[in-house]
Automatic annotation (TrEMBL):
Region (Disordered): 58-81
Highest taxon of the lineage: Eukaryota
Biased composition (Polar residues): 71-81
Record's protein name: Uncharacterized protein LOC104587266
Length: 81
């Protein structure tokens, strides 16, 4: 390759590298901003759900389901015989 073209290619690649780094910084900043916003919204959602008592009801339902799963069922005792 001719040295003239090599120099032009190097200059072009350096410019492309700068453009890509700027895009990376911009996207990284936007991602961080969105993650912070998501965390804030999830906290507000949790506060709202707990204020309406939905979280307590879901916890009670979950406990009831766990109790049913942990207790032996009739099918299990019949299959052992």
């Amino acid at each position: 390759m001719d040295s003239k073209y090599t120099a032009e290619m190097l200059k072009h690649l350096e410019k492309q590298r700068e453009i890509l780094m700027d895009a990376y910084r911009s996207m990284s900043h936007e991602l961080h901003r969105l993650q912070v916003e998501e965390e804030m919204l999830m906290r507000k959602f949790y506060e709202l759900m707990s204020a309406h008592g939905v979280l307590k009801e879901d916890a009670n339902r979950e406990n009831a389901l766990n109790d049913r799963e942990s207790s032996p069922s009739n099918c299990d005792t019949n299959s052992q015989r």
